[in-house]
Input
Amino acid sequence: MYPAKFDYYRANSVEEAVKLLAENSDAKLLAGGHSLIPAMKLRLTQPALLIDIGKIDSLKNIKANGSLEIGALATHARVAASADVKKWFPALANAASLIGDQQVRNFGTIGGNIAHADPASDPPTVLIAAGATIHVRGASGTRAIAAEDFFVDLFTTALEPGEVVTKIEIPNLSGRKSAYAKMSHPASRYAIVGVCAVLSMEGDTCKEARLVVGGAVAHATRLSEAEAVLKGKKLDAAALKAAADAAIAQVGDDAMGDITAPADYRRAMVGQYLQRAIQSALG
Amino acid sequence: MASRVFGASIKRKEDPRLITGEAKYLDDLQLPGMAHAAILRSPHAHARIKSIDTSAAAAVPGVLGVFTGKDFMDVNPLPCAWQAGGVENHVNTPRVLEPEKVTFTGAGVAVVVAESRYIAEDALQLIKVNYEVLPAVVDAQKATQSGAPQIHDNAPNNVCMEWSCGDKAGTDKALGEAEVVIKERVVNQRLIPTPMETRGCIAQYLPATDEYTVWMTSQAPHVMRLLMTAFVFGIPETKMRVISPQVGGGFGAKIFLYPEYCLVTALSKKIGRPVKWAETRSENYVATTHGRDHITELEVGAKRDGTITALRVNTYANLGGILSTIAPGIPTTLYGRLLSGAYKIPNIYCHVWGVYTNTGMVDAYRGAGRPEATFVVERAVDMVANQLSMDPAEIRRKNFIPSSAFPYDPKILNGLKYDSGDYDKALGKALEMVGYQDFRKAQADARQQGRYLGIGFSSYIEMCGVAPSAWIGLPGEGWGAGLWESANVRVHLTGKVVVTSGSQSHGQGHETTTAQIVAEELGVPVEDVIVQHSDTLGTPFGYGTYGSRSASVGQVAVFNSLQKIKEKAKKLGAHLLEAAVEDVVFENGKVHVKGSPDKAKTIQELAGAAALGYSLPAGMEPFLDDTAYYDPPNCTFPFGTHICIVEVDAGTGQIDIKRYVAVDDVGKVINPMIVDGQVHGGIAQGVAQALWEGAVYDENGQLLTGSLMDYALPRADLLPSFEVGRTETPSPTNPLGVKGAGETGTIAATPAVVNAVLDALKPLGVLHIDMPMTPARVWQAIQKG
Amino acid sequence: MKISVKINGKTVERDVDPRMLLVHFLRDELGLTGTKVGCDTSQCGSCTVHLNGEALKSCTFFAVQADGAEITTIEGLAANGSLHPMQEGFWEKHGLQCGYCTPGMIMASVAFLKKHAHPTEEDIRHGLEGNLCRCTGYHNIVAAVKAASEKMGG
Output
């Protein structure tokens, strides 16, 4: 409840933030602060310098123009309420609306969320399912990282030291059906299991499925076995069951467990929520 | 006749300051020159402290002092005030800081006092403690087995006490002869009370008079002063004033004397400045008491017609690493003696092992012993019904104590009797509210569609208004004090009424309900009554607020004071009306001559006359002012039936509460709105035990549910709205006819929910699931079938 | 670091340690103790205030981040001496017992109603998921918010 001492600097531009990060090895970025400050209050992390990027307005935009671009500082509440997000990728709007609570959504940002890479967080799951690209900037310039490659492990991303997430780009998903299905932890509200389905349909037949699980495993992961099962299939109950079984088998021993949801349960719920996400996407 | 105030849902007098943020809770108080304390707590559950290096911490700018347990060897260990039979030779209680050994994770070992809490926390990180870590045990049953780590030298096999009640031989015989016997092991898991306000303390030492003023988050400020002065510090009681400011909920956890309160008090003298300690939630979860934590082997015997003939219970009650203030009383007097529930059970025997483990202290949490007893009884009744394929409502009716049998002596209560009841009526009303027959049809239809609906009953009794002092102080019961309450009523010259009460209010609305009693009795407006409490300066002694005792003990003291006031007012009124006392009555706020209501003196006129003293009857003292001490002749026994309807998702194990119907009989009701509120909150806590809450320690004694990120306190979207009904069977124990309403919901709800879930899963062959019934546990039980 | 904040309509300038949480700034520096602290993991919502009109858990924000912002606390909710309809709703419906969660609960409820003028019971329950109450079981809180929404023309 009482963070340790730190120096504070408010950056007015991404360039400035990148420069400060390069100059200070023990610095952290402060965006919405809703992952960082709780850790600092318990002194689980004690950075020497906080670089506040929260007032850089250019990182707050959400715009749809060929692709959907979401600035790193867009709050979960704005992502959830954005007409563009709802139109382009309703699963993301839904996932954002299920994060934390009203207050957390008002100030927590999508960029801060993905940089933190909590395995039980919702956005990574839907962003991978969408085939999103994470744009980052570092001392040596900008680069684009596929969401699928961005989340490496528990609280670990492909970000290099000194890099700042600037925006998230979601490709045109028109014609796809998508949904996110989540079982929330009753206390933390994080995902015990979250599954996102993005489906490309031709009549009753699935041309392509992108299926991603989060919460149950160390980082959000494509359920490629289940995707293969559904490809070219009619999405009837038998197909969904087969996909669920494939997903359960793929998760296998990677399923995480805790006192609320042991590994065997989470693994089984991957199958349940996979089916729920697909059914919800199909409407 | 004026409309009655007693029994009306009037808005609470305390709310304006609470809804505007004006109320001052402990951490809202700032004293000039106040310093701030932070406590270093043991990261180990069982360890010897070999050395502590505080030098780096002491050198931090802004630090006023760093202390360890060795600096407080002149301060006595805290007392254990409820030494239930058997505990006497095995008592181990906390010191302000543990000097040599810690027996649970979170025990205080050092303290920093600094100019700010931020600085104190900085310094805390720099204290180096060298521990010799010892093996730990956290499970009460395992702790008693050979080879378990030994926690205290004076408690072999970690047994703090062995206590029993009931008829062993009769119960053994009845179980031997029973046509049906069912055995089950039920766990009543550990809960964390979690009032939204954590604990805290501010102490100020005044050297000129050698006096302390101590503000603390306490449900029992008078008792705190008594225990701190007479036992911990060995100073005259007159040298300390204890104040509970606005208190943000307690649920039992704020009854007790805690080491931090004594520590901060000692520090205020050492530092020479007022010192504040405000508990963080992380501290609260490890260092404030927990509740429940029983492992119980139960055997219930019955005839084939469903008549229950015997109940035998063997319970391992986890008391934690060290004893909290009244810990031994909870799993004994308040548990074992309630095992007859609402039923005629001719043979009951209860054996309790009170056990030390390397876990946080366990003491009273809302209901305190009675929820554990009710859970055992209500599960046992359902098990018998299930075995005999009987309807759960029918078996309850069959075994209920009939309304004609009151006062009823369940034998196991050691002389007390259930005061009044009509259990069938409450059950009947609940069945009607829920539409029982319709539900069973809907349930059958749903099963056809593969949906699992279930209904669960809990026909509970509880014991409130603890307690006749002479009963609870009996050898074996072991309460180390009395349990009466007191109140003073003064009617000032202006006709305004000041009540001072030994009871303490921390959310129950005493200021309102007490004013209602005064308004009803004296005929004054509720607005003209002020109720002062929670400060040992200016209020008469009281044992505090817990056990749903403030209406049936504390407010009876208020009522009795009012009767004395009215008697005096009558005498004065007769004098002023020039009538004989026998010829006047006190009615609607006036003393008037019988049959001549116009010939009257109002209470305001009488108060003025009494205060002025110009014309008083011979020998009468001025002023309307009287005090009453009320020691209840019996406890009170609320009862009722709660019914829960759930739907279980067999695919995920998730439980949806479809409806929750509660019919409670708490005797006469002073303010229905407040009683309903108590019931709602109680239900939420009881439901939460069934479905979400549970404190879990790992094998090394680390609390895995150490924050609100992990410990699942119910949120608004997890709960339904509740359907609350009432029957009213006045208590003959006290003149108000009240019983107590603070704990019924918590006591009743837990088994109602569990029974509902198991009813839903009956087609799947599931007979038992441990609490909390998380989706994972439900799903696993379904897989096993 | 120097910050300037408009709190309950009044501009306040103070020099604050960057590590000071907004809730401590309000309570300890400005004496606005109506805003409470109930946990240390950003769960309980007792510290909820409005920052630029949005509900915020002030324990999860540094005072320096609030530089230039407008903040409303429970003390600033009643206007011209008359209670806000939400405060009235909580009083009339017995939406509080110990009162500790109440300031945060009221502030969260007011912010929620701004975005959901005609809430159902389910909306209200979902909307208040960031605020814990241990006393009421939420039953009367839901009733209070509903009553306030009706009073406010919802």
